Amino acid sequence: MPQSSLRIDAKLPRVGTTIFTVMSRLAADCGAINLSQGFPDFQPDASLFAATLQAMHDGRNQYPPMAGVAELRAAISDKVAALYGVRYDSESEVTVTAGATQALFTAIAAFVRAGDEVVVFEPVYDSYMPAIETVGGKAVCATLRFPDYRPDWTQVRALLGPRTRMIIINSPHNPTGSVWSAEDLDCLAELTRATDIVVLADEVYEHIVFDGASHYSVCSRPELAARSLVVSSFGKTYHITGWKIGYVVGSAGLMNEFRKVHQFNVFTVNTPCQVGIAEYMRDASRHLGLAHFYEQKRNFFRTQLQASRFDLLPCAGTYFQLASYRRISDLPDIEFARWLTREAGVAAIPVSAFHHAGRDDGVVRFCFAKQDTTLAAAAERLRGL
Ligand code: PMP
Ligand code: GLN
After folding, report:
1. Residue minimizing CA distance to atom 9 of ligand 2
2. Which of 156, 265, 316, 376 is spaced 20 to 30 A from 146 at the CA atom?
3. CA of 203 to the centre of ligand 2 (A)
């Protein structure tokens, strides 16, 4: 390709390649055990493949309706009603998306105008701030402070103002594994009452909450549900992160605006996978059993690391375990993660990557959505440090 003299005015001048891609690539280059990017290293249930293949043979290979195939939207509506006691209309209040990332981006593009402020909580999932910036909005950061990462509602109150268009929340939370309480939702409801703030709730780990605790979805609070778009991901729930399918639910008014953008963003999502997932969802034990499945993995991984010099932070949900490495090294976390990958042969994510100004508490994130043999092999290496 010839060199271009084109002057490119970058919309995202500070954005590079995502930390997940960087660390997974480094893990592959070094032959390290990859506990960095969040994806399972085991196969999904084969019956999901069978249902999807059947859909292809049944001729479900052309464009589906813009909002998603009817049977999947009905299954989502039923699931949400069963879990959170609210019935979203599958025609006008449920949309299937190409993963949660697309749902989040589309929601932000549909509601945030140039100059609008969007409150996010740091450490913050990496896609939110670039999406806000792309549409000319301004991210305003509330702090989830190490080591317990609880929201500080006094601080949030102070951040709200006439320009606040949206608040993005994420519980269970990536990367910290913290989960919001019923009181947190009370505070959110109280702060947004009598405003036009839209809540964008990233609940992709809704089924991965441990120790008998409940997931408090904004869907379960009528007052909050009325101002919220709630996003989930089949990638997390059915061990298919590479299928890139998720969904969003929200009141008809909000969904109408969402779909105006969605139809020109992806238009729609591949048909046979939607049909396959709809069939697979009929058995609710598949999502209801997920918490137990990952709780065992969390416990196994934590036990394996007990004799290491990592200090493990609490993990109430998600499939991520945070660990302080201060007893092992004084390196900044990005350098430590690289060193760990190269020298110890285990890849992790530095938590400073979730802070816009790079705040570094000496903590890395390990993904435990892995076979026990993978976790045991990684832990053996980590215990040697
Ligand atoms: N939000 C959070 C908090 C996530 O952790 C992820 C992916 N791990 C996503 C959104 C994106 O989900 P998807 O892969 O369905 O786009
Ligand atoms: N959400 C996944 C994680 O937190 C990664 C997704 C991605 O690579 N963008 O690890």
Report:
1. 20
2. 376
3. 14
pLDDT digits (tens, 9 = 90+) for 234-265: 999 999 999 999 999 999 999 999 999 999 99
Round to whole Å and give the CA distance between 105 and 134.
9
How far is the first Cα of the chain from the last one, in angstroms, to the nearest whole number?
47
DSSP 328-376: T--S-HHHHHHHIIIIISEE-EEGGGGSTT----SEEEEE--S-HHHHH
Calculate how far, in angstroms, residue 42's C-alpha sits from the geometric centre of ligand 1: 18
Cβ-Cβ contacts under 8 Å for 15 (sequence gap 6 or more) = 130
Report helix, strand or coil for 380: helix
Q: Which atom of ligand 1 is nearest to the CA of 202?
A: 1
Identify the pLDDT of residue 14.
87
Q: 45-90 pLDDT, tens per residue?
A: 999 999 999 999 999 999 999 999 999 999 999 999 999 999 999 9
* pTM score of the predicted model: 0.97
